[in-house]
Amino acid sequence: MIALIDNIYNNLKSLSNALELLNKPYKVIKADALTEKYSHVIIPGVGNFAEAMKELKKNNGDKKIIQFSKTNKPILGICLGMQLLSSKSDESGPVNGLNLIQGKVSKIELNDEKFLPHIGWNSVKHLRKHFILDDVKNEMDFYFVHSYCFNLENSIHEIGKTFYGSEFSSIISKENIVGVQFHPEKSQKYGLKILNNFCSKNI
């Protein structure tokens, strides 16, 4: 059973629809209800980093996620959910994150031809092999909505990157933890493939 974390700052409907389409069993829970009985965890998110972390911390929900990460079971952060995996963010901050993948979240660096937020379809360049990209073609387009990006402390954790004004990490991974900056549930065929790859991963 997949735990789909509800921290208010997300849009669970499209993600729930995608999991149902893939025939993947899931349950929407608050972070503080997370236990080792779940096989996978998905942390979605839209909006403000500080407010989302505040919600996760209610009843020590953040600690439940950190504890779950030590089971080696798969964890996926989507969009803001990926950023919450970081050490800290400059958005309304600095504000500490879950520190599951070391790095800092900061505003995307732009040139004069680009504007924030970064909204719409953009390609992801594969940097290394990873199960999340199985049967996903290189430089396919995925759907993005964000103004901040994840700056990794160690580039070995960068799986894919995207260019918008400057290059940023669009897929990251450390051990059992994966983050995608785009919305796979809104990215049609290959987005669903990424979700399926994650949900099919066994420890």
| Low-pLDDT windows of residues | none
For the biggest sheet, the summary is:
9 strands, mixed
- The radius of gyration is 15 Å
- CATH architecture heading: 3-Layer(aba) Sandwich
Considering DSSP H and I runs of 4 or more, what fraction of the residues is helical? Answer: 10-25%
Structural class: alpha/beta
For the largest sheet, list the strands in their spatial order: 2-1-3-4-13-12-11-8-9
Write structural notes for this entry.
The chain has helices at 12-21, 49-56, 61-69, 80-83, 188-199, and strands spanning 2-5, 26-29, 40-43, 75-78, 88-89, 95-96, 103-107, 118-126, 140-146, 148-152, 158-164, 166-174, 177-180. It is an alpha/beta fold and 203 residues long. It has one domain: Rossmann fold (3-Layer(aba) Sandwich). The chain has a 9-stranded mixed sheet with strand order 2-1-3-4-13-12-11-8-9. Strands 6-5-7-10 form a 4-stranded mixed sheet, with helices on one face. The two termini are 14 Å apart.
Protein traits:
single chain; 203 residues; alpha/beta; Rossmann fold; nine-stranded mixed sheet; four-stranded mixed sheet; 13 strands; 21% helix
How do the helices and strands line up, and which of them pair or pack?
Elements: E1 2-5, H1 12-21, E2 26-29, E3 40-43, H2 49-56, H3 61-69, E4 75-78, H4 80-83, E5 88-89, E6 95-96, E7 103-107, E8 118-126, E9 140-146, E10 148-152, E11 158-164, E12 166-174, E13 177-180, H5 188-199
Parallel strand pairs: 1-2, 1-3, 3-4, 4-13, 5-7
Antiparallel strand pairs: 5-6, 7-10, 8-9, 8-11, 11-12, 12-13
Short summary:
The chain is an alpha/beta fold.
